[in-house]
Design a protein that fits this description.
The protein has about 325 residues and is of the alpha+beta class. It has 9 helices and 18 strands. It folds into 3 domains: about 90 residues, no CATH class; about 130 residues, Jelly Rolls (Sandwich); about 70 residues, Phage tail protein beta-alpha-beta fold (3-Layer(bab) Sandwich), CATH 3.55.50.
């Protein structure tokens, strides 16, 4: 929209570069600048290669326009030699823009991670999306809205600023609306947790986010909401600990072993069994590598002076050390 000027999207910039490189005024400095743009973001290369594919598909059309020019007088060749390129490029850009246009149909993309996997994606608008372990997200981009459906798991979003096109994450009957920020959403078994690391978000929950409950969250705050729409009061969070998964780490600070066990099961295909009743309430603190199950189990056993055994690859059993009793 002209009322809200912004930097061109990668797709728009790729279209400009495609035509610019084929113009008569293109020089070495332009080509060097193009190479820098291409190297700045993997998504730039993807968009440019998409245009090249469309251009190649239109090669029969290019030859049709190129034919008559060979019969033009030499003195007019300088003015007209780029005319077929201009026509074909204009058609190419029109096809490309139509192909991406929300009026032609919304853009859908699904992203998935298995247990223990992480994924980082640059979206079409330049926003950064990161998926934690065991996560499914569907991205729907249209002309007036950017919408993500978090079906399970956890995501982090660093959102490209486009106030006229809201960035919304839907999960379990609620939605988180970005107001220029970095935030995470975790859809857990009993509630959905929203954490803000920079900027601000608006959280709506209940009746498919028809504003039965609405809260604003700022940097360093977190809240949870249930499928029924009930929201917890915002609380302060440890931003470093909350984002540890993005570095491949888990940070526990004075959490019960019952909570820790549930977290381990998110990152590894195992079941944690606490054979001694007193273990569930024991507290754990520390920094652990998320993908090192053996290291986590050994460290917990040492911290609690407990015994840990693996009766099968899928089961870890913690028992109080009887020598301690």
């Amino acid at each position: 929209m002209s009322d809200h000027p912004s930097a061109p999207s990668p797709a728009e910039a790729a279209s400009v570069w495609f035509a610019r490189l084929r113009s008569p005024g293109c020089c070495a400095a332009d080509r060097l600048e193009f190479q820098r743009w291409l190297a700045a973001d993997p998504h730039h290369r993807h968009e440019y290669q998409t245009l090249e594919t469309l251009w190649q598909a239109m090669s029969p059309l290019q030859s049709v326009y190129a034919g008559p020019l060979s019969r033009k007088p030499v003195r007019r060749a300088a003015a007209n030699r780029f005319y077929p390129v201009g026509i074909a490029a204009a058609l190419l850009l029109a096809v490309g823009l139509l192909w991406r246009s929300p009026y032609f149909g919304e853009h859908y993309q699904h992203y998935h991670t298995d247990i223990g996997e992480r994924l980082s994606v640059t979206l079409a608008d330049g926003s950064l999306l990161e998926l934690n372990t065991a996560t499914d997200v569907t991205v729907r981009y249209g002309k007036g809205r950017r919408e993500l459906e978090l079906e399970r798991g956890e995501l982090f979003a660093q959102v490209a600023h486009q106030p006229w096109r809201p960035f919304v994450v839907k999960a379990d009957g609620g939605e988180t609306r970005d107001i220029g920020t970095q935030f995470a959403v975790y859809r857990g078994p009993e509630s959905t947790t929203v954490s803000v690391f920079e900027g601000e978000v608006e959280v709506r929950s209940g009746a498919d986010a028809q504003a039965l409950a609405t809260s604003s969250l700022r940097s360093g705050e977190q809240l949870a909401y249930s499928a029924s729409g009930r929201q917890s009061a915002p609380i302060a969070i440890d931003i470093e600990a909350r984002q540890a998964w993005r570095r491949g780490e888990i940070i526990w600070r004075d959490q019960s072993l019952a909570q820790v066990a549930a977290e381990i099961e998110r990152y590894h295909p195992v079941r944690i069994q606490l054979a001694s009743p007193g273990l569930a309430s024991q507290r754990i603190s520390g920094v652990f590598k998320a993908d090192d199950l053996n290291g986590i189990v050994s460290a917990i056993a040492a911290l609690l002076n407990a015994e840990a055994r693996r009766p099968s690859p899928e089961v870890v059993v913690f028992t109080e050390n009887r020598q301690r009793l």
